[in-house]
Design brief:
By secondary structure, this protein is α/β, with parallel strands linked by helices. It has a domain at 5-148 and 175-201 and 256-263: Vaccinia Virus protein VP39 (Rossmann fold, 3-Layer(aba) Sandwich). It has helices at residues 5-10, 13-23, 26-38, 56-65, 78-87, 126-136, 160-170, 180-189, 212-225, 232-247, and strands at residues 46-50, 70-75, 94-98, 111-117, 137-148, 154-155, 193-204, 253-263. The radius of gyration is 19 Å and the shape is globular. The termini are far apart. The structure holds S-adenosylmethionine. The site of S-adenosylmethionine has 23 residues, from helix 2, helix 4 and strand 2.
Amino acid sequence: MKDTDSTLAQFDQTGAERLEKIYLTPDVVQQREQIFQLLDVKPGMQALDIGCGPGLTTLALAQAVGGSGQVDAIDIAPPMLAMAARRCPAQPQVKFHQADILHMPFAAAAFDVALATQVYEYVADIDAALRELARVMKPGAQVLLVDTDWESCVWACRDEARMRRMMQGWSRHIPHPQLPRTLQQRLQRAGFADVQAHTIPFMNMACTPDTFSGGMIGFIAKFVGDLPNFGPQLAADWQADVRSMEEAGGYFFSLSRYVFVARKPLD
Ligand SMILES: C[S@@+](CC[C@H](N)C(=O)[O-])C[C@H]1O[C@@H](n2cnc3c(N)ncnc32)[C@H](O)[C@@H]1O
């Protein structure tokens, strides 16, 4: 089994559509706005969207660099790339590439700015991926990485043991479910400097489909329900338990995203 097989299975057509819905919720729209406030992107720049997914960040980058700039967007999953391309029909400055972030199809020192939201945690050999990122960035260029530490997840329920079991299963959806706590050192080892970190919290008091957790609950139940030794009954009971907290007026979900901003040093 290749490292990317699990990612490709998660982002098939159904997974891509499910992710797009979650990433259009106000929680994630607001997250994107906060990220773009930290991103040093200007008209005319060469920008890179790494693991572009549904293309929401690609479109925002295209608008920021304008017609005089260029955005290269890469993703490993064809359904994601197709969705992203449909989102950018009027942006000739965007080029899409099916590629693994370990081997990007770009010359050295090609980009002024790069963005990767929720992508590096999917890659087993992070250090090689960050060295590849350093290769394609220009001296002085900015990179912005967003990842989640799933141990920051606080979710009210009645059965804590079952919640722990579900989170244990869910942590298998990526090779690095606690990546942010090592990113500062990893970025420095890959040759980046001026590393800054920020948190973006999600906080939901309802489990409606227009919230991040209301979208994620089905995503998590499907993934863990399909795992051997976990199974659909566990996932269904867990989902019913968490949802029942809302009926009782005690729904509580919180999770932190971590944003790392760094620069490739000037030669
Ligand atoms: C959780 S989604 C995030 C999408 C997008 N960055 C966003 O925030 O809207 C993760 C994306 O990373 C892509 N991905 C994961 N591993 C990858 C790899 N090794 N090379 C390229 N893309 C990858 C997936 O296919 C998926 O589209």
